[in-house]
Specification:
five-stranded parallel sheet; alpha/beta; globular; Rossmann fold; six-stranded mixed sheet; binds pyridoxal-5'-phosphate
Length: about 475
Amino acid sequence: MKYLSTRTAANDSSQRKRFCEILLEGLAPDGGLYLPEFYPQVDDARLSQWRGLSYADLAFEILSLYIDDIPAQDLRALCRKTYTSEVFGTDQIVPLRQLESGLFLQALSNGPTLAFKDMAMQLLGNLFEYELTRRGEVLNILGATSGDTGSAAEYAMRGKKGIRVFMTSPYGRMSPFQQAQMFSLQDANIHNLAVKGVFDDCQDLVKAVSNDLDFKRRYKIGTVNSINWARLVAQVVYYFAGYFQATSANTQKVSFAVPSGNFGNICAGHVARMMGLPIDQLVLATNENDVLDEFFRTGVYRVRAPKDTYETSSPSMDISKASNFERFVFDLLGRDGLRVKSLFGEQLGKTGRFDLSADAAFAQAASKYGFLSGKSSHAERLKTIRETYERHGQMVDTHTADGIKVARQYLRGGVPMIVLETALPIKFAATIVQALGQEPTRPEKFVGIEDLPKRVKVIEADLETVKRYIAAHCD
Ligand SMILES: *Cc1c(COP(=O)(O)O)cnc(C)c1O
């Protein structure tokens, strides 16, 4: 399997790369995102073979279709080391629960940081360690986080050979639980930098360090952002696992409802559907930051300015543009890389928007690719959390609530609708208290984490300070 950039011409095969070549990379050199040359097809016989597999072995089967430069026995060992009941809490790894007739919740949030990002990030940690060891190289991951991504990265990379993590976060602005999760890590290779500023200051610092090419090369700086293909393909696995739990025969279809921000999670659903998994609809749910809902309703993709991006009670979906969306548009436009380049590389930069409403391809987003969308407000979020608790005794987090709210708009008789649970309520306790008048339940292993000793360095929002810190901690 080779990978191409979403911005290359169809007849240009000169830049194609293999999996391990793109594993540690972010964007392609032309600014596009990597996708496989084709989607391997999974037929009825294959689905039947996979039905009874453990999650780890299912992951191995799916990843094998996309990775041919890691020996099979090594890849299988990496999957088995990653997807264990010790790390994810149950043997099913992603258990399905019924809420009401036809509506299910798939738990993706029982990993170390209680958000679905662990599903991919835990594998990424093991893949990175494997590949860096094989090359005899080291990598220093520099990132900015306002919560979920940073902690998932730290828990995935802690104690890994050849890897250090330098994670910036806005000082005093994460929830006490999130701060405790990150700052209580005592591993020598994890460095928390609490920056006196806001999230954008952290992001600017990361960009500035990465733009200093000498420094970047000298200190082997890399990232783990949501556009990484390995993260995406790891997420494809739980769509298959959810499908197998909700059905008993391959003639049945299911739909998925996905709380969405950067379009990473639902893009994996799109890949699963393109591979032939019998998915009826892919229902995209946004919060008040409705960039993607607007696109699927109108055909207009309009990125928001920072001042038009709201701080909501489902903060992991507070995005101004959706970094993975280009992958879907590439497929939607018949893989016309030059057109994608003109839309994302030129038009978006100049005007902040593009309009596909008059394009015949746009109608296919729903008819051919199964996409539907909707949004949820703070009031609707509270109402959904309350109703779900009253009717089913089930506490859901704010992001998952957005998914449930929109899923209900699109229920179809006879087709199970699976809502992906993207975090546990404990991570967003304040809103749960507002909705239910009580604290969310806390998993045993997190009792008292706020009282653990913290390992964090508070710094000014200053480029030289960050560079000096990194230099001093890379020997
Ligand atoms: C990251 C995240 C999302 C959004 O996922 P995308 O892949 O960016 O669409 C939704 N909910 C939670 C809890 C998250 O952490």
